[in-house]
Amino acid sequence: MLTYAIPLVPGPVAVAPEVAAAYGVNYGSADLEPEFVDLYGDTQSKLQRILGTANRVALISGEGMAALWGALKSTVRPGDRVLAVATGVFGYGLGDMARSLGAVVEVVGFDYDEAAGDLARIEDAILRFRPHLLSLVHCETPSGILNPAAAVGELVRRHGVPLYCVDAVASLGGTPVAADAWGIDLCLGASQKALGSLPDLAFVAVSARAWELAERVGYAGYDALVPFRGVPDSGAFPHTPNWAAVAGLNRACGLLLEEGLEAVFRRHAATSAVCRERILALGLELFPRDAADSAPTVTAVKVPGDIGWQTLDAGLRRRGMAVGGSYGPLAGKVFRIGHMGPQARISLVARGMEVLGEVLEDLRHP
Predict the structure, then answer these.
(1) Among 87, 250, 266, 279, which is 20 to 30 Å from 41 by CA?
(2) Number of domains in the chain
(3) If you average pLDDT over residues 157-177, what whole number do you get?
(4) Which domain holds residue 242?
(5) Alpha carbon 286 to chain centroid, angstroms
């Protein structure tokens, strides 16, 4: 079994012992025991605090894509207009997903190394296209970009876009997310990134108008949102819940709230700053064209042209360090350091940067 002393992948992240311990319990049947209903409700309450929302949160068994598909299938019908604001693989991918459902999709596309900062372009597209739903990825992990979800949300409210859908999978728990203040109708998250649990739960915070639209759409698949509207008050669940996963996420959220969200955000910001300082000191180049667009949960770095990604990756793994490559047009060109959740520790990142420097030296001067 492979294990790494320096885990710096951009998710799924290393898991704290307290979270891992939640999986080692022989729980009862979740749909029969009142204790699970209480646990689900408490987990929903903790997520509401982290998401900055009073909206009900639906917990779906599965990793993050379950939330993306569930939100789109539940609220988008063939012929609906979807405006995808895209700065990377997942932003463009959300547009592709909506298109596969029969939606009429327009993309406000930005380069992979820039954030969606040109709000005038987005506003022009809203006024011309008049979308039913606007989608945005808050943190694009493949490119290390943090997008201005609050500013885009203001445009959505100003121009009466019915639904604002934000993928906060890789930002939630590492930087502020304020779903209600930003006007987010479908705020998507998952357990395996900065929240610091295993990749087995996805969730969606659903606004009142999103519930109403979902009722009208009437999607009835496994990942449908509507069956979760009365959960946990009803005590009935759409399918067999994963008690261990909910317990793990509950403990992970509890750890964040015990530390204090502002302290958690400061920890991520400080760790990311150290990471980027060390990257530049090693003579490497950050990927986003403007460092201010970099996410506090992940650092994207250009692969040095004289070495190549596969060689660099193999060298790091031999030293017990795991980072991530990238996807799509960035495959082989960018690698990513995940300092999110339990991995957002200056000591861990500092050691990782020492190893990175040693590997670069060994590869260049064997």
Answers:
(1) 266
(2) 2
(3) 98
(4) 18-258
(5) 21
Of the listed ranges 189-193, 221-225, 238-242, the least confidently predicted one is: 238-242
Q: Please state the φ and ψ torsions of residue 49, each to the nearest 5 degrees.
A: -65, -40
Residue pair 193/170 in contact by the 8 Å Cβ criterion: yes
Residues 109 and 175 in one domain: yes
- At CB < 8 A and 24+ separation, what contacts does 16-23 make? 16/196, 16/252, 16/255, 16/342, 18/251, 18/255, 19/196, 19/197, 19/198, 19/248, 19/251, 19/252, 19/255, 20/248, 21/251, 22/244, 22/247, 22/248, 22/250, 22/251, 23/198, 23/244, 23/247, 23/248
Q: What pLDDT does residue 156 have?
A: 98
Q: For the domain that residue 329 is a member of, what is the CATH number?
A: 3.90.1150.10
8-state DSSP, 350 = H
User: Does residue 118 share a domain with residue 41?
Assistant: yes
For residues 144 and 222, state if they share a domain: yes
The encoded tokens of residue 150 equal: 């609050």
Taking 70 as the threshold, does the pLDDT of residue 35 lie above it? yes
Where among 243, 258, 273 does a domain terminate? 258
| Angle between helix 208-217 and helix 65-75 axes, rounded to 10 deg | 70
What mean pLDDT do residues 322-334 have? Answer: 96
Q: Hey, which residues does 260 pair with through a beta bridge?
A: none
Say if residue 195 is in the same domain as residue 53: yes
State the pLDDT at residue 28: 85
- Asked if residue 316 lies in contact with residue 285, where contact means CB atoms within 8 angstroms, the answer is no
**Are residues 86 and 34 part of one domain?**
yes
Residue 1 lies in a domain: no
> At residue 105, what is the residue type?
V
129: CB partners within 8 A, 6+ apart? 81, 83, 106
Q: Could you tell me which residues are beta bridge partners of residue 83?
A: 106, 134
Domain check: are 164 and 273 in the same one? Answer: no
pLDDT at 1 over 70: no
Q: Tens digits of per-residue pLDDT, 135-154? A: 999 999 999 999 999 999 99
State how far the Cα of 359 lies from the Cα of 53, in Å rounded to an integer. Answer: 45
Q: Residue 2's pLDDT is what? A: 65
CB 171 within 8 A of CB 177: yes
**Judgement on whether residues 238 and 314 belong to the same structural domain of the protein:** no
Beta strands in 222-333 (DSSP E): 298-302, 321-322
Q: Of 241, 258, 275, which closes a domain? A: 258
